[in-house]
Amino acid sequence: MRTGKYRALAWVAVVIGGVGSARAGDLTVILDGVAHDQGGLRVGLYDRAESFRKEDRAVAIRTAAASPGQASIGFGQVPAGRYAIMAYHDEDGDGGLDRFMGMIPTEGYALSNDPEVSGPPAFDECAFDIPAEGRAITLKLRY
């Protein structure tokens, strides 16, 4: 009887311990096609449609210096789940994506899944899964 009780407690400890440690993995975003070294790069990670593309409501924002070619930006440990990314080359360093007439990006930008858009991109078009072991995703900047 005592052995069964200890086995049950051990099983609970393994399950609880395993859940906490296996639920997050590293996320690395690779931005391909950075045109030049002016300004900086901004990458936003979003976990819901309501906040997508609103930097002040992102799960996390990462920045990096711009350098022609490719940039690798790490988010560290991210809980497993469904996310979308919007990244841009903040060429003038003003902290926002410049747009013509408030709609059409005039600075380089990238979206996860690289959807064809003819208006504001939707979360579902850009959403991808991050498994517990983490992942790397490559995005191509469009200028």
TrEMBL record:
The protein, known as: DUF2141 domain-containing protein
Native species: Magnetospirillum gryphiswaldense (strain DSM 6361 / JCM 21280 / NBRC 15271 / MSR-1)
Lineage: superkingdom: Bacteria
Pfam families: DUF2141
